[in-house]
Amino acid sequence: xxEFYFVRHGQxxxxxxxxxxxxxxxxxxxxxxxxxxxxxxQFLKDVHFDNVYVSPQPxxxxxxxxxxxxxxxxxxxxxxxxxxxxxxxxxxDGDIRAYHIHEPQAINYYHHPEKYxxxxxxxxxxxxxxxxxxxxxxxxxxxxxxxRVLVVSHGTFLLVLLKTLQGVPLKDVRNGKLLxxxxxxIFTTDDGKxxxxxxxxxxxxxxx
Length: 208
Fold this sequence. Notes:
The chain has one domain (13-150, 161-202): Phosphoglycerate mutase-like (Rossmann fold, 3-Layer(aba) Sandwich). The protein is 32% helix and 16% strand. It has helices at 13-17, 31-43, 58-68, 104-111, 126-143, 155-165, and strands spanning 2-8, 51-54, 79-80, 147-153, 184-189, 195-202.
């Protein structure tokens, strides 16, 4: 059995300012973001990870470093995986979300992912994001058919990927709220194809 620990990066300035934060733009963690990532690290400090995989984006890299600080897995050993980056939001990336919220494709982006036309703003489609996400999970499982791994990535990417791993159809993958910053979700699999969620969006360790 392989156990996956999925962590969303800590709160960033773009999160606070209500800006799109996709696979191109980045912004630093806030003080709260640093605090919650450190608290996630304390919560996981006694968990032994065989491998750690992280998005290349700085907000995820910093979060992973903070989470691993009290752990016996040294951050210098973590593996950066390009395909763990956030969905590419194209021309929207970095813009204030409220500027676009009533546009037809923005409505589809949030509520009708099966209808979302990413090419309209030079972005990435949900099927393409899911395809690269599944490919990453397949590779991680093949490298760790028995063990425990930590994956640090992004809100939309993780929400959609984790729902897909549970068999949720494309039209429903955006139902419910986004995973919280620095939250922990745990999945297990015996074959790399069928996954069981044992913990979802856990923030119980945070001093809110």
